[in-house]
Every structure is written in C-alpha cells, then in structure tokens.
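[Q] Does anyone have a clean structure-token version of this?
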Amino acid sequence: MKNRFFKNQSGFTLIEMALVLVIIGLILGAVSIGKDLQRTSEYKKVKQKFVDQWEQAYNQYYIRSGVVLADRQEAPTLAIAADIDDGVHAGFLGDLNGNYTDVTAPSRLCENTSNDAYPGARPADTAAQNLHEYFDALGIRMPPGRTEGREDRYVYLDSNGNPQELQVCFQWNNPGTASGAGNVMVIIGMTPDMARMLDEMIDGQANAVEGRFREQRVGSDENEISTAVGWTFSNVDAIGSGSAAVAGTDAVDEDQIMVVTAHYKMNQ
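[A] Here you go.
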C-alpha cells in the first residue's frame, strides 16, 4: 500500500515543465505585442482624427477666406496671425532688401490664451482672439478634440499608462528657424515614440530636423540648427517637477513620460 501511494504522487516530467514555460512565454509575448499594437493604433488615430483634421480645417480656412489663418484680407502678408497684434505687424514688411529673417514674428494663435504656454512659446497675442473665433466666423467646423471650447486638445495614454494631453497652435516662423520656416502647426505634448511615429508617417523617416515634421528645439539660440537628427528624450525620460526632464536612469515605470513639441509645416 505504501509503495502504491508514492507511485501515484509522481511529479511533472522535464518535457511537461518545458511545455508550460513555453506557453507562459508565448502568453507574455502576446500581451507585450498586443500593447504595442494598441499603442500604434492609438497613434494612427491621433494622426487621422486630430492632426489631419486640423490640417484640413486650416486648408478650408484658406480656401474660404483667400488668406492664411488670421492674416490681413485687405493686405495679405502670407503669415499666420499677422492681423491680431494691434497694428504691430501692419504690412509685415522686411527690410529694404526684403529680408524677413530678423522681423518680429506675429504671435502664435491658440484656442485659449490662458492655457497656451509651452517651452519656447512666444508671448500670447494681446487681442486675446482664439482659433474658435476665426473658424466660427467662416462657418468651419473644427475637429471635436476633447469637448466644446477645447477642440484644440486631445487626451491619450502614454506607454506607462499615464494620461497625456496634446494641444495645437499655429504660428509663422522666420526664415532660418531650425524647425522650419513659414507657417506651421505647433503640436505640443507628444511622447517621443508618438513623435517618431508621426514623423515616419508624414515624412517617411524619423528625422527631427528635416522634412515637414520637425522638433522645436529650444536653447540659447532658438534658430540654431542642431546636427542631431533624433528626437530629444525617449520613453524612459520622465516629467519631473516644473516640467523638467528626469533622466532615464532615475525614471521609473510609474512616471509620466517626458513630452516634446513639433512644428508641422503647412502647405500655405
């Protein structure tokens, strides 16, 4: 009876244990791949449902008004927001040689001037006009965004599961600006992996200093062209106190990932 008891208590064979480990590995791998696919799908949705729709709204404004966003219809300057600075940019003229490199650029144009601060931002416009007023005046429907009055915002989860918020503004960049001269859509609040994916979808390669989609880099000289082609920060860099970046060696999985700002060159 005793020998029969021990015979019935035989354990797993090495083959059975190996099969269990393989199955566990496959499950964990599938979960990881699933998260990556979900995040990729979310970034594609950001481009299609938010960024692309804002570009379409901008182009629709140009078609209906004949000028770029918030430009002067009586004397077009071809610069965004040239009509909202209380006459400071009247005519928006360069020097006698037509040089616009050192002119004072018009203010950026955002949805809400009380909530449009970001690293490297220009001062808010003094007229306190916003995107909503300009698009409503022409009967143009803006992308839904977060809600009424916050159409310029979009909320998503970063790779650590923390909520992040995108914001769009529009502005004109002087010639020589490293992130691209001319009229641009400013996209604030992207995690580095989102920025790289959008860059890849728009330009065909993730290069932060070339193409229509570039990083806004702020330093001692905003017009200084950096030789680094990669996007600043990575998903192991976190947002610390005062929005300062915390290096990856100090960041943990629960941290909110550091974000970057991009300039997306408009066609007009």
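[Q] Thanks! Anything notable?
[A] The two ends are 91 Å apart (CA to CA).
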